[in-house]
Design goal:
Number of helices: 31
CATH superfamily of the largest domain: P-loop containing nucleotide triphosphate hydrolases
Number of strands: 14
CATH class of the largest domain: Alpha Beta
Distance between the termini: 94 Å
Strand order of the largest sheet: 3-5-6-7-4-8
Largest sheet: 6 strands, mixed
Strand content: 5-15%
Number of domains: 5
Length: 682
């Protein structure tokens, strides 16, 4: 919204520009008059009007600012005005044609300027001189340089009239950025630090690059905008993916931006955290852009850039602290926050969300929550649980909000299993319940009771589930996810591990970083792909393999959620690694009693069944996973025959499952199954 002061300056600038054009006209007419006294007097009068116009202005006119910014001589300034005049006043075209002695040559030229303007110098149109270096004007192609038509750049023409806008050639590459959210105190302190750093640096062309590291993309943007605003600057943002890699295009971009930054008092934010600049050409382009772009530049990255040939200050931008997140929740919820009865702390302890995410959750869950009664909020529609109270709605919305960061990196498992579905010995069940207690009470123990202050090491909750395939390891993870009302993600370590040095750690980092926001349960399947007996370091590959293992354990120990490793071969794991895992649960091969219990629970209540003998079925010496496969196959066979599930269907399904396992059905297992068993023995 324009202020009265701005409107006054615009009017005064227009008057000044008109007076400057009048002076230019008088100079050209004086040149044509060749010493006429009346022309001399007319020029002196126009110059006096120009001086009076300047005295009435509250700030310098655009032409004066432009000349000072780019170091133009008086002759170069007059050339620029010569080019602007023909755009602003059509009468100048005929005047140029008269001076050029050709009605078809109605454009300004260097020859015209050298002949008609005061203080001429040939160097004004050198490629390295300001007019052409900063592309303030264009020289149209011609056989003779001095006779080639000159044209003012459109962005510069608008600037002279007092109109600011982003250069069209930068549109789609660099975008203006404005603050979207209020800064939390820790981020505000960083913004103030940047502003202080730049304000104390001199000259402005050699300001240090400020590197903003971390995963808080929105916070880094808002922080950068706030720092610039404190210095009276605007901010433009460019993504790593839009930076041209061709040298000529990149050089053109750099020069256009430096010009734009000077015209609009702007800083540049280079965003490299929405994707890695891994290919050599793009990485080189990013480094060249940062090194060659003068003025105020910030770069947003996940990790620190190295080997930059320019002074760089690095700041770590972390998520808002728990106290700051609580304040954000209270602000977003308003008076409704009181209805949570202290459950806000539980929410914050589980979900570490940014300011935009918190506002999105509140908007999704409660609408205009500040004007709603909490009893009405409980009736708001949520796709899968409309009757949840406010804290339940917020919890579920937080889970959904955190998912997009992890859905592209791992497989989300919808947990359906509950404690009653899990058939395990009491000792194993006790371990699982202990895991649930640790996750549920970690905030009270770590924060309220002070264990985190004693040591930051080993606060992550990690578990190893060991046992043969099909013994219930994944089901146990589902049970924990259901119990804790958390998302469960399965990561196949065999797909994460890479033969290329450093890639495994990069893959693991992406998974853990994405999971931090929602504290999801991470299930690392096939841990054998990474773990094994620690071998003697014989070459670089052995050394990096141990680094990968150490990195995984380090991230598990620091992870704020629950991380579970599964393995079929516990004995193959190094004891030194096992000591760093908090819980180890051995999932045994089920004995006959356990198999009988699994068979009793395996069929859903709606499945029609007839004369099923759990004792007989328990003689099949297979795991719970195999039992499920047999039950499911038998259900399909019965459905196709339009019959209830019977022992004959189970026998046929068992044969199929055993064939898959490359094992024969023995007399001990199927003896006494009636006619089907007799047929099998025959």
């Amino acid at each position: 919204m324009k202020s009265a002061e701005t409107d006054n300056w615009l009017d005064a600038n227009q008057n000044y520009l008109a007076a400057a054009l009048a002076v230019l006209r008088c100079q050209l007419e004086k040149h044509l008059a060749d010493g006429d006294v009346a022309a001399e007097a007319k020029l002196a009068e126009a110059q006096n009007i120009l001086q009076q116009s300047r005295l009435t202005m509250s700030g310098p006119p655009a032409l004066e600012t432009l000349s000072a910014t780019f170091g133009l001589s008086s002759f170069e300034t007059d050339i620029l005005l010569l080019c602007a005049a023909v755009e602003l006043d059509s009468k100048f075209a005929s005047l140029y044609a008269t001076i050029n002695g050709d009605p078809l040559r109605a454009s300004p030229t260097l020859s015209l300027a050298l002949a008609a303007l005061p203080n001429p110098h040939w160097s004004a149109l050198m490629p390295a001189a300001p007019l052409r270096y900063w592309r303030l004007l264009e020289v149209n192609a011609g056989s003779v340089l001095t006779l080639s038509p000159l044209r003012i750049d459109e962005r510069i023409l608008h600037y002279l009239t007092g109109v600011q806008h982003l250069d069209e050639r930068l549109a789609g590459i660099i975008a203006p950025l404005r603050m979207a959210n209020d800064l939390v105190p820790s981020h505000r302190a960083l913004a103030e630090r940047v502003a202080t750093l730049w304000s104390q640096s001199s000259p402005a062309a050699h300001l240090p690059i400020v590197q903003l590291c971390g995963d808080e993309i929105a916070a880094k943007r808002d922080l950068a905008v706030a720092a610039c605003a404190a210095l009276g600057m605007s901010l433009g943002v460019i993504s790593v993916h839009t930076i041209p890699t061709h040298a000529t295009e990149l050089e053109s971009l750099i020069r256009l931006w430096e010009r734009e930054a000077a015209l609009s008092a702007s800083a540049l934010l280079v965003e490299c955290d929405k994707g890695e600049a891994t290919e050599a050409s793009r990485s080189f382009a990013v480094m060249r852009l940062l090194e060659r772009t003068r003025g105020a530049v910030m770069v947003a990255t996940r990790d620190r850039l190295q080997n930059l040939q320019r002074l760089m200050i690095t700041l770590e931008v972390h998520k808002p602290s728990r106290r700051e997140q609580c304040a954000l929740w209270e602000s977003a919820l308003g008076t409704t926050a009181f209805a949570l009865n202290g459950k806000l702390e539980t929410l914050v302890s589980q979900f570490s969300l940014s300011a935009p995410a918190i506002h999105a959750v509140c908007a999704e869950t409660t609408g205009n929550v500040n004007e709603m009664d909490s009893r009405r909020v409980g009736a708001l529609p949520l796709s899968h649980s409309p009757a949840l109270p406010l804290d339940g709605l917020l919890w579920e919305a937080c889970r959904v909000q955190a998912r997009p960061h992890l859905d592209d990196l791992a497989q989300r498992i919808e947990p359906v299993a509950a404690w009653e579905d899990l058939v395990l010995p009491p000792a194993q069940k006790q371990i699982l319940r202990a895991i649930a207690v640790h996750v549920r009470q970690r905030t009270k123990v770590y924060e309220t009771w002070g264990f985190a202050a004693k040591s930051a090491r080993g606060l992550g909750i990690s578990a190893l589930f060991a046992g043969a395939s099909g013994t219930g390891k994944t089901m146990a993870a589902e049970v924990l996810a259901n119990e804790l009302r958390l998302d469960l993600y399965r990561i196949d370590l065999s797909q994460v591990v890479s033969k290329y040095i450093g890639e495994t750690e990069k893959n693991l980092r992406r998974v853990f970083d994405a999971a931090e926001e929602g504290g999801a349960i991470l299930l690392f399947d096939e841990a054998d792909a990474l773990f094994g007996k620690r071998s003697e370091v014989k070459d670089s590959h052995d050394r990096y393999a141990n680094i990968e293992i150490s990195y995984l354990l380090q991230r598990m120990e620091a992870y704020r959620g629950l991380a579970i490793l599964t393995t079929n071969m516990k004995d193959a794991l190094d004891q030194a690694f096992l000591r760093r895992i908090r819980f180890v649960a051995q999932f045994p091969f089920p004995d006959a009693a356990q198999r009988r219990e699994i068979w009793r629970r395996i069929f859903p209540a709606n499945t029609p069944a007839e004369n099923l003998d759990a004792n007989q079925l328990a003689r099949l010496n297979v795991t719970g996973g195999n039992i499920r496969n047999i039950a499911l196959q038998s259900a399909f066979l019965a459905a196709d025959a339009d019959e209830p599930v019977c022992m004959k269907h189970l026998l046929q399904a068992a044969r199929s499952e055993y064939a898959k396992l490359d094992r024969p059905l023995t007399e001990t297992e199927i003896g006494g199954w009636g006619a089907e068993g007799m047929a099998q023995r025959a």
